[in-house]
Design a protein that fits this description.
Elements: E1 20-23, E2 26-37, E3 40-46, E4 53-61, H1 64-79, E5 90-94, E6 105-112, H2 119-128, H3 135-153, E7 160-161, E8 170-172, E9 178-180, E10 187-188, E11 191-194, H4 196-209, H5 217-220, E12 225-228, H6 231-246, H7 252-257, H8 261-267, H9 280-289, H10 300-315
Antiparallel strand pairs: 1-2, 2-3, 3-4, 4-6, 5-6, 7-10, 8-9, 11-12
Helix pairs in contact: 3-6, 3-10, 6-9, 9-10
């Protein structure tokens, strides 16, 4: 991805600076430089006015296209209002990018700071001692993520797809409410692919913006004539649900080994540990979601209904 994964905004360090940022007349003191990647940096900042901590994402745009994508991300933030989707507190941009004369512009986004970090961070800590989450807690968090995804998929006038759902793009609030973040890959959900050129273009965009261990099969090998829809996100949800059970996506280990994630994903071979501390119903829910053929994959309403039914069943067990 060209922009830095927002999971970096959750890391606590010890680098203190006296740098400050002025965004639309509001001053923020930079407390820590948290990381960078591609053309983005993320800083932890504090407002001298209310002493609250925020995360400021800065994107350096080297072309009009870069600038357009960054400003589009801001527009999505402004349009979307849901408790399970991160809010944009403020934003601005400076300059005008022009690749011909090597002029860059800068886009700034002020976002909430989540002290608990991301779901990825949380699972990483639990994996150290194999401290499995309870099925009930897994489903509670999963249903919260699904609520945010349902809002996107039902958005008017046009359904939206996040296109990069993963554990590191889900923050956890103080009460463990999941909050979806990083809208840099978001796009209209339905994409009509007409010919090999369209297919290659979409495949290249997916390779750049969609994290491989959570990427839907149809985005690895885009057919020349097809319709890609919001069910790319459903595949990612299945990977997230698996990760909440076993700390990593079913394709993370393959990715870490350097083997072909594309081949593993397209094979559809999802296995579970032999000594699984979870009910068969939860495994079946994961397999119900992770259908290779997108036309067989459920929509978000069916996923939510089945997950809620399982959660209710657990409530009734004495």
């Amino acid at each position: 991805m060209n922009t830095l994964g927002l999971s970096l905004i959750m890391r606590m360090g010890c680098i203190c600076t006296r740098e400050s940022l002025n965004i639309n007349g509001v001053k923020y003191n930079v407390k820590e430089h948290l990381g960078e990647g591609g053309f983005s940096t993320v800083n932890l900042v504090q407002s001298p006015r209310n002493k609250k901590l925020y995360a400021v994402k800065k994107i350096i745009c080297h072309s009009i296209e870069d600038q357009k994508l960054a400003l589009q991300e801001i527009e999505y933030y402004k349009k979307l209002k849901h408790p399970n989707i991160i809010e944009l507190i403020d934003s601005t941009f400076k300059g005008s990018a022009d690749i011909v004369v090597n002029i860059t512009s800068e886009v700034y986004m002020v976002l909430p700071y989540y002290n608990r970090g991301t779901l990825h961070d949380y699972l990483g800590l639990k994996s150290l001692s194999k401290d499995y989450m309870s099925t009930k807690e897994i489903l509670r968090i999963f249903l919260g993520i699904c609520d945010g995804v349902k809002y996107l998929h039902n958005f008017k006038p046009e359904p939206l797809a996040h296109r990069d759902l993963k554990t590191s793009n889900v923050c956890l609030s103080d009460d463990m409410t999941p909050v979806i973040m990083d809208l840099g890959s978001m796009a209209p959900a339905k994409v009509q692919v007409c010919g090999s050129q369209d297919a290659q273009k979409l495949q290249d965009i997916a390779a750049e913006r969609c994290s491989m261990p959570y990427r839907a099969p149809e985005l690895f090998n885009v057919e020349s004539y097809c319709v890609i829809d919001e069910r790319t996100d459903i595949w990612s949800l299945g990977c997230i649900l698996y990760a909440m059970c076993y700390f990593k996506s079913p394709f993370d280990i393959i990715y870490e080994r350097g083997d072909s994630v594309a081949l593993a994903v397209l094979s559809g071979n999802v296995t579970f540990p032999v000594e699984a501390p979870f009910p068969q119903d939860l495994h079946e829910l994961i397999l119900y979601i992770l259908k290779i053929n997108p036309s067989e994959r459920p929509y978000i309403y069916s996923v939510t209904e089945r997950a809620q039914t399982l959660s209710n069943r657990l409530d009734n067990i004495v």
